């Protein structure tokens, strides 16, 4: 993997990807990995965990990864991706928008400060890597 499967913990992420072999994939609700094609002058938008919290999962954070090029490929496998992570201010409280909840659809996530959410995700990801390394 060029980048293992993960959810973005931002509000959203913008990506400009080239047409190099291997690349971005997203997991469908059925569990299948789908290649995200490069679109000339296009931008990929990945919804992150904080946006899912604001919208009560109307916009869901998608599991995605970046795969290696095929092993039998000859020639350059270099890849260039430009990534812009969009985050609210550190002390911004992210909670379900009133228009995204009602009596039949209560808020799915508790309110959280954006910076605390980010820090917890980074600490969890770091400890997961340490556990994986220790197992090897």
Describe the structure in your own words.
This protein has 136 residues and is of the alpha+beta class. The protein has a single domain, classed as Jelly Rolls (Sandwich). The protein contains 2 helices and 9 strands; from the N terminus they run E-E-E-E-E-H-E-E-E-E-H. The strands form 3 sheets. A 4-stranded antiparallel beta sheet has the order 1-6-3-4, with no helix packed on it. Strand 3 and strand 4 form a beta hairpin. The longest helix is centred in the C-terminal third of the chain and has 22 residues. It is elongated, with a radius of gyration of 17 Å. 17% of the residues are buried.
List keywords for this structure.
three-stranded antiparallel beta sheet, alpha+beta
The assembly state of the depicted protein chains is: single chain
CATH topology: Jelly Rolls
Provide the succession of SSEs.
EEEEEHEEEEH
Strand order of the largest sheet: 1-6-3-4
Tertiary shape: elongated
Q: Architecture, CATH level 2?
A: Sandwich
* Helix and strand composition category: alpha+beta
């Amino acid at each position: 993997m060029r980048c293992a499967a993960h959810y973005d913990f931002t509000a959203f992420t913008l990506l400009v990807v080239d047409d190099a072999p291997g690349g971005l994939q997203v997991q469908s609700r059925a569990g299948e990995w789908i290649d995200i094609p490069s679109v000339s002058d296009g931008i990929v938008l990945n919804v992150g965990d904080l946006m899912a919290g604001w919208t009560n999962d109307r916009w869901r954070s998608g599991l995605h990864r970046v795969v290696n090029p095929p092993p039998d490929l000859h020639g350059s496998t270099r890849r260039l991706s430009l990534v812009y992570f969009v985050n609210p201010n550190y002390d911004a409280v992210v909670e379900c928008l009133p228009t995204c909840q009602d009596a039949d659809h209560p808020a799915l996530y508790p309110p959280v400060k954006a910076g605390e959410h980010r820090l917890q995700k980074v600490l969890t990801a770091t400890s997961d890597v340490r556990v994986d390394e220790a197992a090897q």
